[in-house]
Every structure is written in C-alpha cells, then in structure tokens.
C-alpha cells in the first residue's frame, strides 16, 4: 500500500492513484473491483457513473420476483467508458460499483474544492 494514494474504498473495491506514475497518467484513477482493474480519467469516471446509474435504474424492473438466485445472478449488462467493454453484473454488484465510483468522484471533487481554497 506504500505505492498508492487511496481515494475511496468499500467492501467491493478500491480506487486509488499510483505514487510513481508516468506524467501522462498523473490524472488517472485506478479502480479495482471483482477481478477487474480500470485506469480512468475524471471524465471517464463521470461517464462510468452515468452508465452505472442507467444500469441500476433499468435493472430494477428486470429482476425476477420469485428467483432464488437474483442476488448472485449476473443478468445486467454494465457499459463502461471503453465502448467495446461491457460487464455482466448482478443488481447488488451494480449498487456496489455505483457506491465505489460515486464515492471516488465525491472525494476527488472535495479534494479539488479544498485545494482551490488552499486548505489541506
């Protein structure tokens, strides 16, 4: 953990920035959940947050009412900022990823705000 600056984490994943990164990657955030790693810019994080919100909203009505495996069923397709990549997720995983990305964006925006004020 000495090589990273943690930004936000939950039980499902973590978002951080590398300490020893290349200058061209200095504005990117590494997001890890399940067995997936994404290296995203702030704008890509915002786009991903919208994709997640769409999946959660549309997925709510697609859950099988009497299904015994709906918590683990990866029946939802989650689009990503990379248009070629879509993840199959359960509704609960979509909720967890939403928390991870929204928490990361909140922390980045908070840090930016305090940086503009000269605090911290």
Topology:
Layout: E1 4-9, E2 13-18, E3 29-33, E4 36-40, H1 42-60, E5 76-79, E6 86-89, H2 91-117
Antiparallel strand pairs: 1-2, 2-3, 3-4, 5-6
Helix pairs in contact: 1-2
Mean pLDDT: 87
Number of helices: 2
Low-confidence stretches: none
- Write down the Rg: 16 Å
Plain-language structure description:
The protein is an alpha+beta fold and 120 residues long. Helices cover 38% and strands 25% of the residues. The protein has 2 helices and 6 strands, in the order ββββαββα. It has a 4-stranded antiparallel beta sheet. Strands 5-6 form a two-stranded antiparallel sheet. β5 and β6 form a beta hairpin. α1 packs antiparallel against α2. It is elongated, with a radius of gyration of 16 Å. It starts with a strand and ends with a helix. The relative contact order is 0.18.
Key terms for this structure?
four-stranded antiparallel sheet; 6 strands; 120 residues; two-stranded antiparallel sheet; 38% helix
Task: Please provide a brief summary of the model.
The chain has helices at 42-60, 91-117; strands at 4-9, 13-18, 29-33, 36-40, 76-79, 86-89.
């Amino acid at each position: 953990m000495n090589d990273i600056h943690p930004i936000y984490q939950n039980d499902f994943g973590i978002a951080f920035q590398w300490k020893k990164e290349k200058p061209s990657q200095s504005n990117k955030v590494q997001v890890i959940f399940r067995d997936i790693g994404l290296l995203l810019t702030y704008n890509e994080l915002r786009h991903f947050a919208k994709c997640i919100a769409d999946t959660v909203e549309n997925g709510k009505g697609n859950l099988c009412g009497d299904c015994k495996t709906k918590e683990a069923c990866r029946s939802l397709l989650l689009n990503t900022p990379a248009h070629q990549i879509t993840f199959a997720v359960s509704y609960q995983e979509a909720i967890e990823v939403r928390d991870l990305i929204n928490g990361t964006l909140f922390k980045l925006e908070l840090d930016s705000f305090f940086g503009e004020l000269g605090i911290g």
